[in-house]
DNA sequence: AAGTGGTCTAGACCACGAT
DNA sequence: TCGTGGTCTAGACCACTTT
């Protein structure tokens, strides 16, 4: 990234009167003479990076509007079209949300549309049901090696371990174990979790400034262990859907590791391939 | 769709000398005066529809290049930018594939990149392994009511039923049952299937002109029935991943219904949420 | 009426691949 | 060298929302 927030477009102060705009050459010079093997980065992608940086450092909060395209264009000293293309990509990645006539907004987990992208369990018949969660555990511990590895922590770093049971219509259907980096979730307690109503990622976002953007999942069918079977009120050995999820925030930094066991007799995991 | 293939851009033959191009008004007039409640459809989306029609009727075959942006622009009597935006969306939906310097190509299941979007089973360690399939059945029958419903067929229409076992490293790991509309798959026999090497969707595409674009899946954990357990060489009741898939071709027409049972002791289903 | 994002055009130039 | 897609700009106008 050769364009810095301080001097957004480090370009030669060319005369604006120039008939043929040296557009692409500006991008090339801004990106510096590309070293052999260095990837060419178009202007709009650099602008995109700057916007992500601003999102990351919380310059605009989830739910808020970001500056208009023309504002950003003048701030970065590029044309509106270039800003537009940067925002287009960010909107396609669901980091931003465009609303014609109103502005462009930072996506938030407090909206259903965002929430259902990360909540894939659906009742076989009928509409989504409100889930209610009972917390079994919420404690701090040194990160187990596997957790440290996937969350990119050092061996001795602390993590928060959460265990909970989710029920649909008062029927227990999900067991979840969650690991979060302790440093980013100071003050997270069982009470905070219990008293909060709404999506968990919403809590992370508003209370701890950590926004989940993307997640990778590994899905398997497993037999219920005795303890899990008891919590879900099924026979030991009953088939359960196991989902291991690693969630990422801006710039692909991992911030959550989650293992869920799902009873799928009346619910299924929906997915779309394309 | 008010622009027809015959008269692509049914616009008033305005003088090209006009300084201020009546671009947007053209789109509006092309779309007709929108009835109250009728959605406004921008020009590039109408162009996109025309391109999809051409793809659908096989004007350009999978793997082939479509005409250049300038060619399409002059064919449709719009600017290159408008064609570009239409193609951008089609590329984002994986119907087309852009290659700088070479052209824009119709996506094909004979490419790995496309194939792995529909093949989500991955070994826990190591790289993807070639699967080999044994066909248990391939016969024609009247569509069962559930199949007829999801494939949008009439009650008495014929379907092809295929049953097969997939093995990784000679270890049986998947049982699949597939239903296809008989009318679109005339001449599909067990022999044709057995002698064909490569992805099944590739066969559908080149032999029957049916291109899979998108699929919806419902995923569950189930206990292995006796017959399935025997095929997979596991104990009855063993947990299996069950995936029900409905695949769609152009214009969202359903063309395949598939039910798979997966042994996930050494493999998992990978997914990315965003 | 003013401000925002959305569409459309036209033209210049760059990066890439084939010739 | 040429043709392809890719980037960038500038300007006009449309659609939607709020004032």
UniProtKB/TrEMBL annotation, chains A, B:
The keyword Protease does not apply. Keywords: DNA-binding, Transcription, Transcription regulation. Residues 41-109 form the HTH gntR-type domain. It comes from the Bacteria. GO terms for molecular function: DNA binding; DNA-binding transcription factor activity. One of its GO terms (biological process) is negative regulation of DNA-templated transcription. Pfam families: GntR, UTRA. Residues 1-20 are annotated as: Disordered. InterPro entries: Bact_HTH_transcr_reg, Chorismate_lyase_/UTRA_dom_sf, Tscrpt_reg_HTH_GntR, UTRA, WH-like_DNA-bd_sf, WH_DNA-bd_sf. SUPFAM superfamilies: Chorismate lyase-like, Winged helix' DNA-binding domain. This is GntR family transcriptional regulator. The lineage of its organism: Bacteria, Pseudomonadati, Pseudomonadota, Betaproteobacteria, Burkholderiales.
């Amino acid at each position: 990234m050769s364009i810095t927030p301080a001097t957004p477009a480090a370009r030669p102060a060319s005369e604006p009167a120039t008939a043929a705009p040296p557009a692409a050459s500006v991008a090339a010079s801004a990106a510096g003479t590309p070293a052999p093997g260095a990837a060419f980065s178009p202007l709009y992608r650099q602008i995109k990076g700057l916007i992500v940086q601003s999102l990351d450092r919380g310059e605009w909060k989830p739910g808020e509007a970001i500056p208009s395209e023309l504002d950003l264009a003048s701030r970065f000293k590029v044309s509106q079209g270039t800003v537009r293309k940067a925002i287009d990509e960010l909107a396609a990645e669901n980091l931003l949300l465009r609303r014609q006539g109103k502005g462009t907004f930072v996506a938030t987990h407090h909206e259903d549309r965002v929430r259902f992208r990360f909540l894939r369990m659906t009742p076989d018949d009928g509409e989504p049901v409100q889930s209610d969660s009972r917390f079994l555990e919420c404690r701090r511990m040194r990160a187990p090696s596997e957790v440290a590895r996937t969350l990119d922590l050092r061996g001795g770093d602390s993590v928060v371990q959460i265990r909970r049971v989710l029920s649909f219509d008062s029927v227990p259907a999900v067991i979840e174990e969650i690991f979060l980096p302790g440093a980013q979730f100071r003050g997270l307690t069982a009470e905070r979790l219990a008293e909060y109503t709404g999506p968990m990622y919403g809590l992370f976002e508003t209370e701890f400034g950590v926004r989940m953007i993307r997640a990778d999942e590994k899905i398997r069918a497993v037999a219920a262990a005795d303890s899990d079977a008891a919590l879900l009120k099924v026979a030991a050995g009953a088939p359960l859907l196991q989902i291991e999820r690693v969630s990422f925030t801006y710039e692909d930094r991992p911030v959550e590791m989650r293992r869920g066991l799902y009873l799928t007799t009346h619910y299924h995991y929906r997915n779309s391939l394309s």
